[in-house]
Specification:
Order of helices and strands: EHEHEEHHHHHHH
Domain GST N-terminal: 3-86
CATH class of the largest domain: Mainly Alpha
Distance between the termini: 53 Å
Helix content: 40-55%
GO molecular function: glutathione transferase activity; maleylacetoacetate isomerase activity
Domain GST C-terminal: 90-212
Strand content: 5-15%
Shape: globular
Strand order of the largest sheet: 2-1-3-4
Largest sheet: 4 strands, mixed
GO biological process, one term: glutathione metabolic process
Number of helices: 9
Keywords: Transferase
Length: 225
C-alpha cells in the first residue's frame, strides 16, 4: 500500500504535527513530503495541494491514490490501522475521548488564541496576560480531572488520540511558563508527552527552522497584562 503524508513546516504546522504523531504512534509506514507553508511561498505551495485536496491545506494523506484531507480524519484512520488502540475500548470513554478531540479540532474555545504554535519557538517570549493565565487554569482544571479519573499517565490511561491532538497546545502553552502549581497531574502529563521520542524528534527539527513571526503576538490590550 502506497501511503504519503503531505506535511507542513515543522515550526508552523501544528495540524500536520497531530496527524504525523498519530501515524507514527500507530506504527504506520509512510512517505512524507514537507510543504513549506511560510509566506510568501505558502500560497503557491498550497495551491498545488489544492489540485488534489479540496481544502488546499496540509496535512493530506494519500493512500493508494485516495485522499484523506483532514487531520482528525487522518488520526482516526491511524487509529483504525492500529486496531483501535489509540482510543479507549469502552464506548462511553471512547465518546469522551472524541469529545476532547472535537473540542481541540474546533479551536479549543479560543484558549490563549494569541499564543500561536509558532511563538513557542521565539527566542524572546512575552509574559502571559491575566486573561491567558485564567484560560490556562480553565484548561488545566479539565485535564487534571481527566488524569485523576484515569489514574494517568495519559488522559484516558494509555496514550490515545486526545493526548496527541493536544501536543501542539502543550508546546505553545508550556513554552510560556504557565503556573502548574495547582495542577501537578497536568504538569506530569505535559512532561510525559514532550518526552515521547516522536514528539522530541519533531521539536528538534522545528527548532532548526527560521522563525515565523506574527505581529499579533505582541498585540495585547494594556488592561489585560
Amino acid at each position: 500500500m502506497a501511503t504519503k503524508l503531505y506535511s507542513g513546516t515543522r515550526n508552523a504546522s501544528s495540524w500536520a504535527m497531530r496527524a504525523w504523531l498519530a501515524l507514527k504512534e500507530a506504527g504506520v509506514a509512510f512517505e512524507e513530503e514537507v510543504v513549506d507553508i511560510r509566506p510568501p511561498q505558502r500560497f503557491a505551495n498550497l495551491a498545488r495541494i489544492g489540485g488534489f485536496s479540496p481544502p488546499a491545506a496540509v496535512p493530506v494523506l494519500v493512500v493508494d491514490g485516495e485522499t484523506i484531507f483532514d487531520s482528525l480524519a487522518i488520526m482516526e484512520y491511524a487509529n483504525e490501522l492500529a486496531g483501535g488502540r489509540l482510543l479507549p475500548a469502552a464506548p462511553l470513554d471512547r465518546a469522551r475521548a472524541r469529545s476532547v478531540l472535537a473540542w481541540q479540532h474546533s479551536g479549543l474555545s479560543g484558549i490563549c488564541g494569541l499564543i500561536s504554535f509558532e511563538s513557542a519557538f521565539y527566542p524572546d517570549k512575552r509574559a502571559l496576560t491575566r486573561r491567558e493565565r485564567a484560560e490556562c487554569d480553565r484548561l488545566f482544571a479539565f485535564l487534571e480531572g481527566c488524569l485523576a479519573r484515569s489514574g494517568g499517565p495519559y488522559l484516558f490511561g494509555e496514550l490515545s488520540l486526545p493526548d496527541l491532538a493536544l501536543v501542539p497546545t502543550v508546546v505553545r502553552l508550556t513554552s510560556h511558563a504557565p503556573d502548574f502549581g495547582r495542577w501537578p497531574l497536568t504538569l506530569a502529563w505535559t512532561k510525559a508527552l514532550l518526552s515521547r521520542p516522536h514528539v522530541a524528534w519533531w521539536m528538534d527539527e522545528a527548532r532548526k527552522q527560521p522563525h515565523v513571526w506574527y505581529d499579533v503576538y505582541l498585540a495585547v490590550p494594556a488592561d489585560d497584562a
